Amino acid sequence: MMSGTPIQNIPVAARVTPASIYVAPSLAAARDALSEYGAAGAPLAGGTWIMRSPIRHEPLKTHYVAIGRIAELSAIRISGNAVEIGAAVTHAALAAALADLPEFAGLVAAAGRSANPAIRAMATIGGNLSTSDFAAADCVPALLCLDADVEIADRNGRERISLAHFLEVRSKLAAGRIVTRIIVPRAECRTAHIRLPLRRSGDYPVAIVSLSVSVDAANRVRVARIAVGSVEPSARRWPPLEDALLGRPLDAAEAARIAAELTGEFIGRDSVDAPAWYRVSVLPGLVRRAVIAARGS
């Protein structure tokens, strides 16, 4: 068994099981460690979700594999065709790296306005996507409407799947598998990310609408991709609304009107911060704001 460094910043009384950290020097070492630990281990990057496990009355893993020092996982590569984002890239670093690329305005807003500055400096994109119990993750709907793919690795190699498929299987991934990067294709489009928190700072959003749209010379919609987050347990695309907007002028009021007719397909989630019906009811207004933001980008 690999040796580890005891976790010092979690009170003993809060630990459900003994915990250790192995600082992986390479991706290969991380894959080996996670495979060896199996279900008793998990990757650790920013730790913003893991550190609150005791508050949620969730047991800690016996072992964590720290991946923050692996250069490959902290890199952002921008080419003419795609942007490749390492799983350990923080929200703050992602927002800064893409700030000058207009087609990623929505993703920049998602990464640059989530939570608060302290969390954005620590929370990673891989953790944001992998935490299946976190319904209010900002980057998930933003990446969904950009047709992002996720690369997963283990001792046997790497696999690339769509983000939509990853969200369906992430809670059932075999022990030892790890998200290594997110691949986002580049395209001529306008994007926006609109979130509705109950307070201005540091609050999880009640509902999120992310939008990616391209229009023709007459301002008619050629391609529309719309994703909704925080309303249901997991973010997802809104195909009926996407289809309804095709061929129409990109108009905020009309998009909101159509959205109001289609909200019945959502089953909102109840929680202490907002009831289910409210999360669904605000969607048309967020669609309107997203179209306004996209037209202005």
Report on the structure:
There is one protein chain. The protein is an alpha+beta fold and 297 residues long. It folds into three domains: 5-66, Uridine Diphospho-n-acetylenolpyruvylglucosamine Reductase, domain 2, CATH 3.30.43; 71-185, Uridine Diphospho-n-acetylenolpyruvylglucosamine Reductase, domain 3, CATH 3.30.465; 190-296, Enolase-like, domain 1. Helix content is 30%, strand content 24%. It has eleven helices and 13 strands. The chain has helices at residues 27-37, 91-97, 105-113, 117-120, 125-130, 139-144, 163-169, 239-245, 252-262, 276-281, 283-296; strands at 5-6, 20-23, 41-44, 63-66, 76-78, 82-86, 149-154, 157-162, 178-185, 190-197, 205-215, 221-229, 236-237. Strands 5-6-9-7-8 form a five-stranded antiparallel sheet. The chain has a four-stranded mixed sheet with strand order 1-2-4-3, covered by helices on one side. A four-stranded antiparallel sheet has the order 10-11-12-13. A hairpin with a 3-residue loop joins strand 5 (76-78) and strand 6. Helix 2 (91-97) runs antiparallel to helix 3, helix 8 (239-245) runs antiparallel to helix 9 (252-262) and helix 9 (252-262) runs antiparallel to helix 11. It is globular and about 55 Å long. The relative contact order is 0.12. Residues 1-15 have low confidence and may be disordered.
